[in-house]
Amino acid sequence: MRYISTRALPGAPTAGFSDILLEGLAADGGLYVPVEYPRVDASQLAEWRDVLAGDGYAALAHRVLSLFVDDIPSEDLLRACRRAYTAEKFGSPRIVTADRIGDGSLWIGHLSNGPTAAFKDMAMQLLGELFEYELDRRGQSLTILGATSGDTGSSAEYALRGCSRLSVYMLTPAGRMSPFQQAQMFGLADPNIHNIAIDGVFDDCQDIVKAVNRDAGFKERHRIGAVNSINWARIVAQVIYYVALWLRVTTDNGQRVSFAVPSGNFGNICAGHIAREMGLPIDALILATNENDVLHEFFSTGRYRVRASSEVAETSSPSMDISKASNFERFVFDLVGRDGGLVRRLFGEEITRSGGFDLSATPAFQSIATRYGFVSGSSTHADRVETIRGLHRDTGVLIDPHTADGVHVAHQWIGRVSAPIVVLETALPIKFAETISEAIGAPPPTPPRFAGIEDAPRRVVDLPNDADEVKAYIEQSEG
Ligand SMILES: *Cc1c(COP(=O)(O)O)cnc(C)c1O
Q1: Phi, psi at 22, each rounded to 5°
Q2: CB within 8 A of 29, min separation 6: which ones?
Q3: CA of 68 to the centre of ligand 1 (A)
Q4: Could you tell me the residue ranges of all domains in the chain?
Q5: CB 445: neighbour CB atoms within 10 A?
Q6: What is the pLDDT along the chain (479 residues), one digit of tens a residue?
Q7: DSSP calls for 286-297
Q8: Residue 76's closest CA among 133, 161, 16, 19?
Q9: pTM recorded for the entire structure
Q10: DSSP 3-state assignment of 477?
Q11: Which of the following CATH numbers is that of domain 97-117+237-440: 3.30.70.20, 3.60.15.10, 3.40.50.1100, 3.30.379.10?
Q12: β-bridge pairing 32-34 and 2-5
């Protein structure tokens, strides 16, 4: 499989999977996508059903990935999948499971039983294995520099800990993460993991990362890279669990299923879109946002309007608090008939000039639900609290505030889209204890594997809000 940029003009060169694995944006500012999506049919799905039931999730992952990767030997790819998806890391040999809520249309697709209790582990664990493999093969090393307000940073650290060719420097806003999130990151003792608490807010951390990346000499010298959600390998790793969940909730290879997806940067649901384009029998892709509804606005009106950071509300589903959706360009590329020149105009010139674009009058947008299955909705803090409380009271099931966004919006679509509707669980309640207490009057139970996590010694250095200090710290640690 070859890859092109979403902003590629006709005749632009293509790249292989292992070329784009370690990269972020394409040189033209676009995002990498396959030149075409592989197609699967009912007999392929029947075979995958046997693979999942027999050899398990890692073997299924290998089958799905093989459609997208042809420049890593098959046995090496299988080994990476086996190392990424272990019962030890994911709490059970099944890795991904689905439970029906009562006897209704909704199911919860459990994706958050990985090391950091959020769905990001599903992709990040595989990314860590693939990074280490590729760096080994090339005899190279990489310094990952990132900024995080929670889930991404901890998931990356747990995936990359102990990798000899990688060091990780993760900037966090001092004192602003939940106690559980702090304990998770700062409790890691691996020497290649460096936590830096910046005296500032999340935007300051992000600005420092950008400033360091602007220093071309420093970037080159330390081989600075990133693991952000635009990385193609993260998206393709997520396609696997759509297949696995579809297999878990169906018995017949033609049955259509809908998915409800708590969304921020459009990474999770982008994988659903790709699975659907591949021919997985998905009816609706229900996109759920919180108060930061830039994506719900697009799917309901056709207008995409990037928000200023001052317009972004701090909500009780913080991992969905976004001003723009960094993976959205991948979907728009398909929507506009894979016209790289047009995507370049929309995401380049139009966003720069007018802060967004309007596709409401285009035939493509008017058929967005029938052709692509996309529908959407949003929730408020009160909706999430009520959803958590109601579900817990009526069924005993406890969900986190992000998953509650998904359940709330899924409820609005019952009867209008094919059932079952699988709501993707993007985090466990333990990560967001405060909102859970508000909803049910008691803190969430601590899963046994996280018991005592807040008592472990902490490894974190405090630095001022200053890119030069961060550079000096990296310089000194890397020697
Ligand atoms: C990252 C994250 C999301 C949003 O996922 P996207 O891929 O950015 O759309 C939702 N919920 C949780 C808990 C997350 O960590």
Answers
A1: -90, 5
A2: 7, 344, 347, 348
A3: 23
A4: 97-117+237-440
A5: 12
A6: 999 999 999 999 999 999 999 887 888 989 999 999 999 999 999 999 999 999 999 999 999 999 999 999 999 999 999 999 999 999 999 999 999 998 899 999 999 999 999 999 999 999 999 999 999 999 999 999 999 877 889 999 999 999 999 999 999 988 878 888 889 999 999 999 999 999 988 888 988 998 998 898 998 899 988 888 889 999 999 999 999 999 999 999 999 999 999 999 999 999 999 999 999 999 999 999 999 999 999 999 999 999 988 888 989 999 999 888 989 999 999 999 999 999 999 999 999 999 999 999 999 999 999 999 999 999 999 999 999 999 999 999 999 999 999 999 999 999 999 999 999 999 999 999 999 999 999 999 998 888 888 888 899 999 999 999 999 999 999 87
A7: EEEE-S--HHHH
A8: 133
A9: 0.96
A10: helix
A11: 3.40.50.1100
A12: antiparallel
d(CA 35, CA 5): 9
Which residue out of 265, 286, 403 has the highest number of ligand 1 atoms within 8 Å of its CB and is therefore the one to mutate? 265
Which helix (H) or strand (E) segment is 109 a member of?
strand 106-110
Render the burial of 36-50: b for 16+ CB within 10 Å, e for the rest.
Answer: ebeebeeebbeebbe
**Residue 10 preceded by cis peptide, ω within 30:** no
Say if ligand 1 is within 6 A of residue 427 CB: yes
Give the strand pairing for 106-110 and 97-100.
antiparallel
CA distance linking residue 170 with residue 157, whole number of Å: 8
What are the angstrom distances between the C-alpha of 222 and each of 144, 197, 200, 239, 455? 9, 21, 25, 32, 34
Active site includes 324?
A: no
Distance from Cα 104 to the centre of ligand 1, integer Å? 25
Tell me the C-alpha distance between 366 and 95, whole Å. Answer: 38
d(CA 150, ligand 1 centre) in Å:
11
354: exposed, middle or buried (Cβ count in 10 Å: 0-12, 13-18, 19+)? exposed
Find where tokens 């966090």 sit: 172
Helix or strand run (H / E) with residue 51: helix 42-54
